[in-house]
Structure formats: structure tokens, C-alpha cells
Amino acid sequence: MGITVSNAQFLLQAPNDSDQHNYRWFEASDTATVLGTNSYYEVTQPGIYFATYDGTLCGSNASGYFIVTNCSSPDNEVTLDISSNVDLSSGATVSWSPAVSGDQTSPMVVSSLTVQRYTATVTKAGNSFELPNFTVVCIDQAANLVDDIVSTDEDQPLVVDIFDNDSDLPTTGTLTTTDPLNGEVTINENGTPNDPSDDIVTYTPNADYNGPDTFDYTVCNQSGDCSTATVTIDVLPIIDAIDDAVATETETTIDIPVLDNDNDIPSIGTFSNINATNGVVIHSDNGTPNDPSDDTINYTPDNGFTGNDSFTYTICDGASNCSTATVTVVVSNAVDLDSDNDGILDSFEDLDMDGDGDPSTNPTDSDGDGFADYLDIDSDDDGIPDNVEAQTTEGYILPSLIDANSNGLDDAYEDGVLGLFPVDTDGDSMPDYLDDDSDNDNIPDAIEGHDYDHDGLADVIWIGSDKDNDGLDDAYEGDATIDIDVNDKYNDPYMDLPNTDGDNESDYRDIDDDNDSILTIDEDLNGDGDYSNDDNDANGIPDYLEPNTPEEEVEVFNVVTPNGDGVHDVLVIGGLENYPNNTLRIYNRWGVLVYTTKAYNTNGNVFDGTSEGRVTVEKDNKLPVGTYFYILDYEDITGKTVTLSGYIYINR
């Protein structure tokens, strides 16, 4: 079950002019316990309340009866029983204000959120007198929330019907959630920002995560009564077969550990493959025909074949959930699989336009610098070595400078799969090591990879000299111009490359370099293609490298005069229209919530000095002249919650 927290919704008020004092509040079922000694009493629970006090009459004086019920039927059915005070057989008559139906000595009325006072007048022998009045109202109930247990597959968002097993949901109030540790929760308000009862909650697990996760959700009604429940999610693993790329020499069999980079391989299921076009694939179940987790594959190229070959394999679990991957095999006469030692196989770096499988004939030269890509450690001339750009920033692996099997490939890049499979940050089918703008933000890598002083200009630029003939321009060579160093000075790209906002990605791969929620590509304000000259505050740092959060311009005008003259008839909050994700709460001097809303002034929801929360019984719902306290929370453009608070004054 969830947790419920109730707050005072009503303020019961006894007569309180200068003649009354020594108040004592009671609930009718326990008249021995004094609940309070002020002229008012805050109510959190249903009951029949009254107060006694000393006044101008002899002895104790008493208020009328305050009957507070729950709003749901049949709890809101109230019998006003005065039968012990009236004997109709003696000729007495009873009248009610307002009029009621049924038995006049015990009529039944229905309570609501609108306060209603009932007074009985007894008339006998021409004389009339009033009985103590009954003031009837119902109290908002906190929602009854029940914990939920759901499941979803890995990488699959799930709409969680959190309200399916809940009850007493408010139609005016709020819904909030906590953040799960291994996923994200979003709330769709369904077009009704102040009505949580129809909100749609979606949970999305983090990429590739499987296992348990939880989040809490809290529902509050308009009176501030809140309930909380917990959602437990079981994120189920799914088979994830990942493509492989390997290389072998002509007429040489190779064992391919295709499962090494796969995820969530079942121990009960099937493994199947489609044979290669130019070779033979042999699958072994390793003596466990129903357990694919230990299966092996080897490939033998056809006699005389060189070039690229491929085949697919499929893994299924016992529930027929399947995943298919492609294995690409490069068959070459070459003994040196990676001539420039950048971790990318020669067969990958050369487009093999002549179809002979030999990168040395008709070689690919992407940057046109005279060095074929398979011999060029910087194939796009951006000054960031291919060995760095081919790997993720966080997962970068240094060359080991070890080649135990003498195949020309550094052993650091021969762990299950031969060679690096180059990263393509922007998904444009051009890997970063060939892409002069890896993140597609309109600022070349040659600038973003070398702008350490954050002025929008590269600290070093290409000069057209390469004394050691490795394909990396001498301007970028660091301390040693002539050396054999495929990663040059970048032993840790996260630390060694510019990263303006200090997040987990270098600027040349970051689409929002300053993390101000404005995409870098959108910060060329003058539209001339030069992002370095857009500097709004003229401090030498271009806008795309400096957070440009708009100045907060939310202003609460602290006077409300609801007199119909068209000036400050409602609470005015300037600038809030720019921040629709907001919540406003207003309290009276006793700290009692009298008004709350979300997305203020978006759907006629304005504060005009009328209470929509806990009210003062014995009064209408117009709040009295006086000072009130407000708390305004709104989400700025960076997603940060900003809180404003202060006092407002109602003057009628």
C-alpha cells in the first residue's frame, strides 16, 4: 500500500469578537478530550466538532455543530437529528433554513465541498426559537494508491497504468514522480495540467539495462493531501546479437568468437546460421544442442578467394525471441592487416574499388594528401588521429605496441574481434575518422579538436608539411615532429581534447558544447557560418562555448484587488508564460493552503482572492483582506527548478 499524508483543509471558526474567550474544541465522540483552545480549529479528519467558550451569557456558551464528512458516498450522507429537542405531538412545528425534505426532525442532507449551514426553527404556541445550527461540509480525501509491479523488455519503453488499482483520485491536483536509478519516467498530462487522474506515465529503461528498477509516484489533491506509492519494474533481458568483422588470409580457416560481443545469450534456445557466399561456415553446438551460449563458429574461405565475404547467424531463446547479426570476413593476401597501426584494418580503410582485395592497388585517399588511408594515421586531416576518432571517448584503448601473432594488428584491438569498428557519432554513415564534422554541428573537427582557449578558433592549423610521412600534419605532431605514434599526444582523449562543459564527450562530438540546452548548430545568430563571431556579451568567448541562459524575468506583483475594476483583479505574474512547467501555492497566515495550481494562467486558472483549497467555515469562499504567503516553483530552460517566494496582499 502507498503512504498517505493529510493536511488541514478547513478552519472551523467559533464566534470571536471581544466578548468571547477561553475556547475549548471537542469532537462529539470524545467530549473528554480538548482538541484546541483557539477561536479556530484546523480539521484534517471527518467528525462532528463544536466549541465551548466563555462569553456574555451566564455559564458556558457553545458554537453550532460542524459536521465534516468524506466526500464519497455514502460517507457524505448526513442526518440532522433534532428529534430529542422537538416533540411534534405537542403541537410544535419545525422549519429549516435552507429548506430540507423528509422527516423534519431528522432530515438527511448530502455534504459537498461547498460549506452549507442548516438552522432549525421550532415554533410552539406562537413562540419561536432557533436550535444550534449545523454547518455541513465534506473534506477532500487523499487518493488511495496501491504499489504496482510491472515488467518490460530491455530497451522497450512501457506505459505504466499506475492508476489501474488506485481509488479516490482527485480531478484537481498534481502528479509527481521520483527518478529511477536505471531509467527515465515521463508524465503526459493529457491536455489537463491540473487533473492528474488522466495522466499517462511512461517508463523507459536505460539503454542495454536489464534488472530491477523502481520509482515512486505521488498524487496530491487541491488541498495538499498527498499519497505515495511505489512502482517496481522488472526489465527483462533480450538477446542482442552484435555484428562482427574479422580478417583472415587466403585459404586460412579462422575461428570466430561471435558470441564475445553479444549480450544476454540464453542457455536454452537455438543457434543457426546462413552460409557465406565465398566460403564455408561450420557451426558447432559444443555437445549441448539446446544451449547456444557455448556454440562456436569457424570460417574457411574458398580456394583462391580474396575480398570481403559475409554470413549471418541467429540466436533464439526458448520463448522464440530472436536476434540476428552479420559477420563480415576480410580475406586478404596481406600479411600486415593494419599497415599504419591505427587499429583499423587495411581492408576496412580501403574501398577496394578495383575488387582485388589489395589496398596497395588503386588505394583510397580520402583527404587527398597523397597518403592512402591505410597508410594515413589522420585520414581526414583534422589533426585528431584515426586511432582516437575510431573509438569512443570514454572507452578509448591505447595501443599496446604488442603483436604476438605477427599479423600486423596491435593485440589491443584483437580481443575477440579483429580491428576497431570505427565510431560514427552523427550517424551519417561517414565514420568520425573520415568525417571533418563528426557531430554535424557545422563547426569542423579541425576547430573543435584544437580550441583550448575557447575563442572559437583553432589554436593550431594545418600547414601542409609531414616530415615523417605518417599522414598527420606536422602542425599537430606535438613535441616530436618525426615519430611513430598513431595516437600522437592523445593518451586520454577525455582529458586531452577540448571539453568546454566538462560532460562525458569532447567538443568535436558534442552537439551542445556549453550545455546550455541550446544546440551548437543554432548559435550562429548572424547566420554567416562563422560561429566564432557570435559573442552576445562581447567577452571573447563565442556563444556556443558559453552558456547563454536568458535572464530570469519572472515577477510576482504582490497586490490582488478583486473589485472588478480590471486592475489587479487577479494575481499577475509577469514572464511566467515563458515557463509553463510551474506550480503555485498560496497559504494564509496560519500556514493553511488556500490555493494551488499548475501551469498558472494557462487555462483560466488564476488566483482572484477566492479559496480553492482549505477554507474558513462560517465564511464564503472569498478570502478575507490580509497578507498571504506564496511559493512559486518553475522550470527554467535548462530544466532547473527555480523557486520564488514572498507575500501578497488582498485588498477588496
UniProtKB/TrEMBL annotation:
Family annotation (Gene3D superfamilies): 2.60.40.3440, TSP type-3 repeat
Acidic residues bias spans: 346-357, 366-382, 502-534
Record GO terms (molecular function): calcium ion binding
Signal peptide positions on this chain: none
Pfam families on file: Big_9, CHU_C
Stated name of the protein: T9SS type B sorting domain-containing protein
UniProt-annotated stretches for the region Disordered: 346-382, 495-534
Domain of life where this protein originates: Bacteria
